[in-house]
Amino acid sequence: MAKPPMKHWQRRRPLASSGSTTNHPSSSTSSTQGPSSSSSASRLAKIDLQVQVARGMMRSAFQKFREMFQYEVPDAEDIYDNPLYRLGVEGTKLELEVDERQPTIVTHRMYWQGNEDRVPEALSVAVASSISHLTISNCNIALADVRAVILLCPSLETLEVKQVAADANPIASLYSLASTLEYRAHGLRSLAITSHTRVDPLFDEILFPSIQSISLRLPGEGKWTNFGFLQSLGQSLKRLRIRGDIPPAGQKAIHRETARRQHGFELDMGLIYEAR
After folding, report:
1. What residues are paired with 85 via a beta bridge?
2. In this structure, is residue 84 part of a structural domain?
3. Does any domain span residue 183?
4. Kind and range of the H or E element at 61?
């Protein structure tokens, strides 16, 4: 009898994390375009994510998603879905057998990489699924897009955006969908943003009662962020990391709002402008 596929909790080949910046040439012309050299690929926009899907459904119900996103590791779909097999009635073929010991919801780690002008399409496909972790890199997006992604992904736990640009145009499809939502609270636990524009409007529009870690890298106009938003964050926040040439007034606001934090809170500030 053929050896059954390896169970996903026993897999030996490590899978790349959702925040990986490793670049791989695409094998799908529908999802990735551009030069095949590693130096050129490193400049392509990249979206890494983890999506939660019922076991076996990735093959049957996520055609558009599978056309756009792919696995970091070849044949990883079999590792994730991991069906068990048994001999047929006559012993001539293998049939699928459900194993109740396996979880019914499977988390798939996948990525998309391509030209920046296709980022709106890739993100529109991504937010239609149950994403738990998302990293967007090597492309400029608007702060309004960050807001839309958060609101459109209620299962999102970790978000990292590596280039929020002040002059980026919002993605119309995301903005239109997010504008119809009435709730303004989200269970996000970790947020990391590099932004060339102020980020306080994001926190003014969305409440994060479960946030545990925030990392802000604020070059350019990002340094003018109004840190008064920190008072709206609950005691769940345990770590705040800030990098940037923050003006004295901003530094004062940061220390004022974080001084009220309970024991165990960590403030990590670096590359801060010191007034003389």
Report:
1. 96
2. no
3. yes
4. helix 57-61
Range of the domain at 242: 13-20+33-53+63-70+109-270
Facing residues of 114 across strands?
45
3-state DSSP call for residue 182? Answer: coil
pLDDT in tens, 66-106: 889 988 776 666 555 554 444 445 554 444 454 555 567 77
State pTM to two decimals.
0.74
Distance of alpha carbon 19 from alpha carbon 9, whole angstroms: 21
Can you give the CATH number for the domain in which 227 is found?
3.80.10
Nearest CA to 133 out of 5, 15, 14, 9 is that of 15
**Which amino acid, 39?**
S
Nearest to 46, CA basis, from 168, 152, 160, 191: 160
Contact predicate 171/145, CB 8 Å: yes
pLDDT in tens, 125-153: 999 888 999 999 999 999 999 999 999 99
In a domain, 276, yes or no: no
Rounded-to-integer distance, Cα 215 and Cα 65, Å: 29
Alpha-carbon span 220 to 202, nearest angstrom: 18
Q: Please work out, in degrees rounded to the nearest 5, the angle formed at the alpha carbon of residue 33 by the alpha carbons of 27 and 36.
A: 65
Do 80 and 104 touch, CB atoms closer than 8 A?
no
CA distance 211 to 190: 6
Task: Confirm if 70 and 26 have CB atoms less than 8 A apart.
Answer: yes
First-to-last C-alpha distance (Å) of the chain: 77
> How deeply is 79 buried, as exposed, middle or buried, from its count of CB atoms within 10 A (0-12, 13-18, 19+)?
buried
Give the per-residue pLDDT at 43.
83
Q: How many domains does the chain have?
A: 1
